[in-house]
């Protein structure tokens, strides 16, 4: 028989930490983007920068969306464990 145990408090902490990291990434990238916007480039340099920045923004948005999903998923898993444990306990009453 396989035995499985989970720690709800640690799952809460992990979920919160993952979501906090995602917010920190957003904040840092917004700061960097504002600093870069103050720089001026002309012609092909500007076009090349804009293309690379658009690709970067898209990749970071995808990464952050995934990070948020993971954080939310950990929270959902925690709740599912609690619900299952409560339902299993009711069987024995």
From TrEMBL:
Gene3D superfamilies reported in the protein's UniProt record: ESAT-6-like (1.10.287.1060)
Family matches, as Pfam families: WXG100
UniProt record similarity statement: Belongs to the WXG100 family.
The protein's name in its UniProt record: ESAT-6-like protein
Source organism of the structure: Dactylosporangium sucinum
């Amino acid at each position: 028989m396989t035995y499985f145990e989970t720690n709800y408090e640690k799952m809460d902490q992990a979920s919160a930490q993952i979501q906090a990291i995602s917010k920190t990434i957003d904040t840092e990238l917004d700061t960097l983007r504002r600093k870069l916007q103050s720089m001026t480039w002309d012609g092909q340099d500007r076009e090349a920068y804009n293309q690379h920045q658009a690709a970067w923004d898209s990749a970071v948005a995808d990464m952050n969306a995934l990070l948020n999903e993971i954080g939310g998923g950990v929270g959902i898993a925690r709740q599912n464990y609690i619900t299952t444990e409560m339902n299993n306990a009711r069987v024995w009453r």
